[in-house]
Structures are given as C-alpha cells and as structure tokens.
Amino acid sequence: MPHPPAIAVEVQDRPPADWSPVLLAAWGDAVHDIEAWTKAAEETGADMILLKFSPHLELTADYARRTLRRMLDITGLPLIVFGPGQADLDNDILVAVAEEGQGERLVLGICEDKNYRTIVAAALAHGHLVDARTPMDVNLAKQLNILISDMGLPLERIVMDPTTGALGYGIEYGYSVMERLRLAALQGDGMTQQPMLVTPGEEAWRTKEARAGEGVPEAWGEWTERAVNWEVLTASTLLESGADILVLRHPETVKRVRGTINVLMNQVNGGSA
Description:
The protein has helices at 21-27, 34-43, 61-74, 87-100, 116-126, 138-150, 171-186, 200-204, 208-211, 223-240, 251-268; strands at residues 6-12, 48-52, 79-82, 107-111, 129-133, 158-161, 197-198, 245-248. By secondary structure, the chain is an alpha/beta fold. The chain has one domain (6-268): TIM Barrel, CATH 3.20.20. The two termini are 16 Å apart.
C-alpha cells in the first residue's frame, strides 16, 4: 500500500451559518476571509482543500469563477470544489468552475444520478475529475460509475462518494457498504476500484453530541473534547473501511487523524506502531 489516505480540510466561501460554536471558535476570525481560512487549513498539514460554496444571493457563475481564481492564487494544494447541493445551481456553478479551472485537475462535486450528465460533460471538456455520490448502496455506487464511464470519462477520473453516517448515526451500515465495495474491487470488479471520498467532518458536526453544550447528561463530558472526539472516531472508523480521502473540519481532528494514518501505514508497510 504505497499511498496513504489523504486529508482534505473544508473551507467555505462564506462564514458558515450552521456550524457549531466549538468549530467556529477553532478557526477564529479566519472564517471571515477565504485567504486566511485557506492558509490556516494549510497549516494543519492538509493534503487537499475542499472549497464548499454555500447557498446565498450572490452565488452566481461569475462569483464562482472569481472565487475559484482567488483560491488558485492562494494555495497550491489540490482542490475539490463542491456546489451548495442544489442540483440546478450546482450545474451552473460547477460548469463555470470547470471552465475557469481548466488544466488544474479539480475534483467537481457533488455528482449524483439526477445531475451527473452536466457535471461529467464539464469535467470531460476541461480535464477534471468528478465526485460520484450515491446513497449507501453498493449497486448504486457501481451503477453511477458505469453511467459516468459510459459518457467517456476515464475511470481514473472518478472518485466514489458512497455516503456515510456519523458515529452512532448509521456509521455501521456505511462501513459495511464501503467494505463490500473494497472487497468487490479486490476480486477484480473494475467499476468499484475507484478511490473513495468520505465526509466525516460534515456528518460528525451535525450530531447532537457535537453541537449541544447545554441540556445534555453530565456523563457526556466537556463539550469541545466530546465534539472533536466524535469527528476523530468517525474519521478513524472510515479509515479502517477503506477511505482514501477524508474531508475534515476541526484542526485538532486533522492532527489526530494524521497520527492514526501514520501508525496504520507504518504497520501496513512492515514497521511497528
């Protein structure tokens, strides 16, 4: 196993309105400036940056172009670019991003069964990859890879996004799906051999355990440590199920998950823990 899993840190184009106060406090004033936030993300040791566009009135194709160009000037790390998760708006935004970022080999997402054609066409025309997201199902993941491949996008430019739940919120089923995808790949199924991207940061920080600081049992422990642990344990579990790219949110999580990756790689490649 020559290549360790990669860590991407999520950076949004606007200060997130729905993030936990614990998470916002970890980044401080950086969330108000995309350059400061990106630089802070780089300082955590991130391998990649995920630029997430949030839905707002100024979100247009031209705005997306300007934001991407600024990001490319700020960082030399590989970029994943996600739209706000609204199919029609995602199509407009990601086509513009694909054109502006020609030659940069971006990962464009989220590419789903209802909007994959437009995004795949943009990736084909401008030399990018796509993030292919499906519900937690082996057959659906494989089917979307086939549909994208049938449009002419090489399999090595598809990143599978099999969806996951957070610790305590369906992670067992997501783990099982990822495990079965990896077993199918090892048995020679060419439509399941693509790298897998997962979003433990997004999933863990939407849970009550990560978001609630009051009105919870005392046994839950100190809020910040509990919240970070929720993301760390979610991410570490998904590492064990074959994740290749983990999208994280808290800088302390990046540090701890990096340590886990180093230990696992040392063991895989013949070292001692």
